[in-house]
Model the fold of this input.
Amino acid sequence: MKSLLHPVTKWLTRLSEYLITFGAFGLFAVAVLDSTFVPLPSSVDALMILLSTTNPSWMVFYAFMATSGSALGCLLLYLLSKRAGARALRKFSEAKQRRVKNWIERYDAVSVLVATLLPPPFPFKLFVVTAGVFRFSLVRFMLAIVVGRAFRFLLIGYFAMRYGAEAKAILVKYYPWIGLGLVVAILLFVLIKRWVKRGTEAVEQTLEPGS
Done:
């Protein structure tokens, strides 16, 4: 198996190195490929740090290109999964499939937003594939992807501008906690919103004539 994977990994490494030479447009291409079924050795996060450290004044543009590429890649994967149906989920365990499906049904676009914020090994692609297979609203799906990815890449770019070459080590150490904190805050917001909505509906029912 290793002998078969080695040539593929070597080719992907060369492709990554080639794309890097195109700067922001190479970052866009890597983001597109990385968000579909083609994981590249040079991740989007690493390229964001490299480019933003080299040209800090271009950081927002790099974040825009990374977000656009990631959104396009997710859109392609969503559409492919929608067309393939249940076959697209075969590579994932049934337990993970059920868990992710329940999350999407329960929390709607918020679940996709949460998935975009969490770092690997969180199964982000499973959320994208599941959303496509079960025909989740494309508008809400893309909105969640764009918001989550934009926040992630802007944060990474900010760390690169502030800490330079040390940004990668700092993000590896602290980003999981930042992502977890954001997830908790988002879920608390959703739960409070639902609780307030239910309370408002209960008050309205008690005020209705004849109640």
